[in-house]
Q: What sequence folds into this?
């Protein structure tokens, strides 16, 4: 007899969906590994043409563009395939869609860093001083990232432990200096992102759904960091989209776990690929 989670997954597969958004790390790639498996890239490049698709990640625009190029290279017509994607970078602080006239992606929203209340240079100096040898601090236009040295990523279990411990420390260090109304801190499992309180993947999806003019429940969102404090927590909350996790489970109703035909729970790229093989898509009318 299927488990409650398995039954919920099977029930969700009976519906039809109109758009899809993917987290990157741990969702399209194995955890703490940074390459999308070829089988999944092929699947992503051959989604039905009427289905809007998006990458939604903590990474910067340059990185996301490179990954999209790696995906669309497997399409029959890479240039046409690229036009079907939207890009949400820096944990939902920016959104980009294809501009046919410019033949490039253009920004359609931006959540600016609250520089007047939280000077980014001051925050970077604080985190660099307190983080010590084991961490690296990166300033981006809309976020500040604290990540580990590269060698730690060869030890996935240790990576998770370090990232969770650092999240607790960041909460304490930042809240001692600035009010919670300015910034949020999210753990990606491979590092932590400090971002404006109005950013986040969940808010990015709200903006995208409004632009597409679709029922939010017909959007599929796929991520892996579902726990509270994780950088997919708002993305996978179920408030916007039908949410699936290929990583951490949550005690809440959303997100839904992914299973294979034998009822085994699947994670990472295997879970994402299996989900895409079983989803039913509806045509998006203009």
A:
């Amino acid at each position: 007899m299927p488990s409650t989670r398995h039954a919920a997954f099977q029930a969700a597969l009976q519906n039809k969906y109109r758009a899809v958004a993917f987290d990157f790390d741990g969702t399209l790639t194995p955890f703490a590994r940074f390459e999308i498996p070829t089988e999944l890239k092929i699947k992503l490049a051959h989604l039905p043409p009427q289905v809007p698709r998006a990458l939604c990640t903590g990474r910067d625009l340059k990185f996301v563009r490179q990954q999209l190029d790696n995906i669309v290279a497997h399409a029959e017509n890479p240039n046409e395939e690229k036009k079907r994607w939207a890009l949400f970078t820096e944990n939902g602080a920016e959104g980009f869609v294809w501009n046919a006239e410019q033949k490039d992606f253009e920004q359609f929203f931006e959540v600016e860093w609250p520089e007047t209340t939280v000077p980014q240079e001051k925050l970077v100096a604080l985190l660099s001083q307190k983080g010590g040898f084991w961490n690296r601090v990166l300033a981006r236009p809309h976020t500040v990232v604290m990540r580990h040295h590269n060698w730690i990523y060869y030890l996935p279990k240790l990576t998770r432990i370090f990232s969770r411990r650092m999240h607790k420390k960041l909460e304490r260090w930042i809240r001692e200096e600035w009010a919670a109304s300015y910034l949020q801190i999210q753990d990606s499992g491979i590092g932590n992102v400090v971002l404006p309180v109005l950013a986040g993947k969940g808010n990015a999806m709200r903006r995208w759904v409004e632009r597409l003019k679709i029922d939010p429940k017909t959007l599929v969102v796929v991520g892996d960091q579902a726990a509270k404090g994780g950088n997919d927590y708002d993305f996978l909350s179920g408030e916007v989209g039908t949410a699936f996790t290929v990583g951490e489970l949550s005690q809440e109703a959303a997100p839904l776990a992914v299973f294979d035909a034998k009822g085994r729970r699947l994670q990472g790229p295997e879970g994402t690929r299996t989900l895409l093989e079983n989803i039913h898509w509806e045509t998006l009318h203009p």
Remarks:
- Residues 156-177 form the longest helix (22 residues).
